[in-house]
Amino acid sequence: MSNDCKKAYITTPIYYVNDVPHIGHAYTTIIADTMARYSRMVGLDTFFLTGTDEHGQKIEQAATQRGKTPKEYADEISGKFKSLWDEFDISYDKFIRTTDDEHKKGVQKAFKTMYDKGDIYKDEYEGHYCISCETFFTDTQLVDGGFCPDCGKETSLVKEESYFFKLSNYEDKLLQWYKSDEKCVLPKGKKNEVVSFVEQGLKDLSVTRTSFDWGVKLPSVMNDPKHVMYVWLDALMNYVTALGYGGDEENMKYWPARVHVLGKDILRFHAIYWPAFLMSLELPLPKHIAAHGWWTRNGEKMSKSKGNVVDPKEVADAYGLENFRYFMLREVPFGQDGDFSQKALIDRINSDLGNDLGNLLNRLIGMSGKYFGHKVDSSDVLEFHKNEINKANTILKNLPEFLYNMQTNRYLEELWKILTIANQSIAIYEPWVKMKEGREKEAMAVVALVANLLAKVSLMLSPVMPKTCEVISDAIGFKNDTNYFVKLFEQEELLAEFEVKKVPPLFPKIEEEILKEKKEESKPKQTPKKEEKKTDGIITIDEFFKTSLKIGTIIEAEEVKKSDRLLLLKVDLGEESQRQIVAGIKEFYSPDELLNTQVCVVANLKPAKLMGMLSEGMLLAAKDKNGLSLLRPETPKEVGTKVS
Ligand code: MSP
Fold first, then answer.
1. Which of 209, 215, 237, 543 has the fewest beta carbons closer than 10 A?
2. What is this structure's pTM?
3. Average pLDDT in the 299-315 region?
4. Which atom of ligand 1 is nearest to 13's Cα?
5. Which residue has a Cα nearest atom 16 of ligand 1?
6. Which has the higher per-residue pLDDT, 628 or 264?
7. Could you give the CA distance from residue 233 to residue 78 in angstroms, rounded to a whole number?
8. If you ran DSSP here, which 8-state letter would residue 265 be given?
9. How far apart are CA 513 and CA 49, in angstroms?
10. Residue of 369, 493, 372 whose CA lies nearest to 441
């Protein structure tokens, strides 16, 4: 997806209506939605298409099994996809159904055009067909004599009259295209697979069926009513019929697609058949065909029979839709398979979102409120922090390229580097010290630096987390829109004076898994292996790491009046809220000398009450006859840094 013209047409695959939406569908759709939102923000005239694929033998069978007509069944499941995408606030411009009349007309026109050109001819098909994949296979492609090489299900032998598309005629042209357009198929590894498949030679493709009825009929002028179109020809054409191909062609101005987003399982159809059909129709080819990997759950392939299919709505309801979006785009490199586990999702929410992003906003609200009555002025940022601003701008400049190459995880990783600059700046420049010393102008510059870095992050993160970033931009007083994209990104400007509003914490800490996992089949209990048995005083590394040790900064310290031993501390561990710790160190330290110093905290200790006060952690210290010393990092470390 590059920015070389002013339009962007972005598509998801159209989803089969034989099954309800699951996490894989949500992933494809969320990537495409992010691309569409990004294109709109950078000012491109964007058209985003999704929809459902409703014809074919698979759907006909699924409907019959449920005692419904295919159309009744398709209406029901298509409705489920549409309402889920509405609930997920997917910003599609059109939801196409292959049972729409305009679509069917467009497919018929395409068929006739290819036929008239001599690219389609009638013959007899004899071979194997996998209904689940809606794909033809030759004898040699089958596994164990009769099973589908893609999904492993049993295939059926088909012998019937069929029309064929002269795919073999397009072999050289396709190879030429792959060669001339480096990024036509992304990522590169997947493209190489496509190229070597085509290099092995392409056979003509059967594009009609006669043994069932649920499909688009041939154009009536062809006078051959027993044929229906092959579901993949029907389905792929949706990308142009949605723009009016074969009817009112006004929206064809959006063609060719900027990017077709899809899963690796359907890349062959998109990167071989689809461009060949387009060449035959003399239409331009899509700019990018981008194939992502598959999601597994806790390391296993998802399947209905295992009962481990992840329901995207359940996850979004439990953990927050936008947190889920962030997780999916950040967790796996585009093109690779990814594993869904609640633990990984919780880690991302608590750490990346809570600690790095949410906490930064809280600190900004806190500092601007405490020192400047919430009013922030960026006038002196460049005088004191040109270096940080330059670093952030360099990171920003390189960001779009990651998205154009579909590297959503890299895009987010880079964005997080700006959050690190902001978080580190607070620790390094200590605005509270500057305030104490009466250097208000410098303290203001730190606070304004943080606000501006956060604003730039919010802007660029908004295609991934639109609502969350709206809360952030509202709090800082700007909008994540094209105007601000021009100002903050293209022109590298800073925000003028603004007032920071208070907002509730964006990412409350998640303590434990919210969704119930399906219980493992009861495995026989294993007796611990010999070497694992406990020996006095010796623990395993796993046992040691049950203790979470973190670096924190003491931001408040006071004496507990009625106690000779206790101090009451507030420690910043880089989390949503600060920890209150009651520590028995009064004899050795005064509150003043502790303030703004770093300590090492046992962070996963069960909270306890000391003299009626909650203590949410313990400080590490060493005591001998000469007294007690707190254990601290040799040089300042970012708050929340793990000790290992
Ligand atoms: N109807 C065809 C597409 C026609 S497009 C002209 C189809 N539909 S599908 O419903 O089976 O799959 C749609 C998308 O969901 C594909 O991109 C597929 O890769 C994706 N996923 C389905 N299961 C998946 C996972 N477990 N993980 C990630 N995505 C997967 O194919």
1. 543
2. 0.81
3. 86
4. 5
5. 263
6. 264
7. 20
8. G
9. 34
10. 372
- Report the alpha-carbon distance of residue 437 to residue 457 in Å, rounded: 31
SS3 168: helix
pLDDT in tens, 539-597: 656 567 678 899 989 988 998 887 778 889 999 888 767 888 989 888 888 888 898 88
194: its two tokens: 């496509």
DSSP 3-state percent helix, strand, coil across the chain (nearest 5): 45, 20, 35
Our CA angle for 21, 23, 26, nearest 5°, is 70
Q: Which atom of ligand 1 is nearest to the CA of 53?
A: 1
How far apart CA 234 and CA 207 sit, in angstroms, is 9
* Distance (Å, whole) CA 99 – CA 54: 7
Asked if 497 and 378 touch (Cβ cutoff 8 Å), the reply is yes
For residue 627, count other CB atoms closer than 10 A to its CB.
9
Rounded to 5 degrees, φ, ψ at 185 are -125, 130
E strands, 116-275, in order = 120-130, 135-137, 156-165, 185-186, 205-206, 208-209, 228-229, 259-263
When pLDDT is cut at 50, 70 and 90, the band that residue 111 belongs to is very high
User: Using a 6 Å CB cutoff, which residues line ligand 1?
Assistant: 13-16, 24-25, 27-28, 53, 235-236, 238, 262-263, 265-266, 294-295, 302
d(C-alpha 552, C-alpha 387), whole Å: 26
Handedness of CA 197, 200, 204, 210 (dihedral sign): negative
340 touches 23 (CB < 8 A)? yes
Task: Determine if the peptide bond prior to 256 is cis (ω within 30°).
Answer: yes
* DSSP designation for 485: I
How does pLDDT run across 140-178, given as a tens digit for each residue? Answer: 888 888 899 988 889 988 889 999 999 999 999 999 999
Asked whether 557 and 585 are in contact (CB, 8 A), the reply is no
Which residue bears the tokens 């907002």? Answer: 503
Highest mean pLDDT among 3-7, 123-127, 414-418: 414-418
